[in-house]
Write a structure and sequence with these properties.
By secondary structure, the chain is of the alpha/beta class.
């Protein structure tokens, strides 16, 4: 190319510069390593799927493998210089999630012959941490803890706990994703959300399955789908990556053992798994059992924990398990049968007979 006669430094000033100047700015900077598949630091993305598919357990297993200093997860390499991980779980009662995490940590330590010191890389929020991030004060609490711990990976459960407004609203989703991205880049985080999908009904999991406004999908750097068919087959799928190939025809089947560790099985065509489930006889869904199970999961069996109706909407209605009228009908039956009680409108508790 011929020289334009314009001094090079004039091309390298201002907000618009030549690609050559931009390349010079990157000289000496290492390429961000892929922590796992298409997850880099900093970035924002999610594990998403239907309720009870195993998405939280999958994210926990990945983060714990990073904290433990393992060099791979599910046969894929792990590259992460900062091994500190922070779990911000606002969906579950702290007792039940702590017991699960302790069981996972003990099993990993035993399985790989690890020194117990690696547990110092694992951080969780306590029972006094906000159950929702709804105010500037709540976000400041989160940021203070991030600054104190300085993790490389932050797992947040879930997106719906960060707003009381509908994530179907694009303006709400835009504001949330802007805040998340600023948080990830400021603190150099791989920010992993647990997010819900729409009702699956033995369908392939895709970007369009993601719950909420399309803005959420547009802003994510990675989207890893976790699905579970009606034949109880769980699998992980590379749905979309910004920095990694996502055009594979295969998904990875997995199972969850007693210690809540992920055990990889074989790869398979998603279409084969869906076809096998679609050809089975219809399964009867007991709405009261679904509601009871979600009550136990949220409260950890503690009758003093109050459950808001909005929490049940997030876990049951928005995920497609039940419709809103069916949920309310089940709540009424459970209340009439003495299994739950309603201390005030919009709030429920497990009922323990005196």
């Amino acid at each position: 190319m011929t020289n334009t006669g314009i001094p090079q430094n004039e091309h390298c000033t201002g907000h618009v510069i030549t690609i050559q100047c931009m390349g010079q700015k990157l000289e000496g900077e290492p390429e961000p390593p892929k922590i796992f598949r298409g997850i880099i630091r900093p970035s924002v993305g999610c594990f998403f799927g239907p309720s009870k598919s195993g998405k939280t357990t999958m994210a926990e297993n990945l983060a714990l493998s990073i904290a433990a200093g393992l060099d791979n997860f599910l046969g894929e390499p792990i590259e992460c210089s900062n091994r500190k991980v922070l779990f911000v779980n606002m969906e579950e009662y702290y007792r039940s999630r702590t017991i699960r995490n302790q069981r996972q940590i003990a099993a990993l330590t035993n399985k790989f012959g690890l020194d117990s010191e690696w547990q110092n890389n694992v951080f969780v929020v306590d029972q006094n941490f906000p159950r929702y991030l709804l105010t500037d004060e709540h976000w400041e609490i989160l940021e203070r803890e991030i600054e104190k711990v300085q993790p490389g990976v932050l797992v947040m459960d879930s997106v719906t706990r960060t707003t009381m407004d509908s994530i179907e609203d694009s303006s709400v989703s835009t504001k949330l994703m802007k805040r998340f991205r600023e948080l990830a880049h400021k603190h150099k985080l791989a920010l992993i959300f647990i997010h819900h999908s729409q009702k699956m009904d033995n369908r392939p999991i895709t970007i369009s399955s993601l719950a909420g406004s399309r803005v959420i999908g547009q802003e994510m750097d990675f989207m890893i789908g976790i699905n579970r068919t009606s034949l109880n087959i769980r699998y992980m799928k590379d749905v979309a990556y910004r920095y990694h190939p996502d055009d594979t025809e295969f998904v990875l089947k997995f199972e969850i053992d007693f210690n809540q560790l992920i055990n990889p099985l074989e790869e398979a065509h998603e279409s084969d798994l869906i076809s096998a489930a679609t050809n089975q006889m219809p399964v009867f869904v007991d709405s009261d059992i679904i509601v009871q199970n979600n009550f136990i999961e949220i409260t950890g069996g503690d009758p003093s924990v109050v459950v808001q109706t909005s929490e049940l909407y997030d876990k049951i209605v928005s995920t497609g398990l039940l419709t809103r009228p069916t949920l309310h009908a089940s709540l009424k039956r459970l209340e009439n049968n003495g299994l739950i009680k309603k201390p005030e409108k919009g709030f429920y508790q497990l009922n323990v007979p005196s």
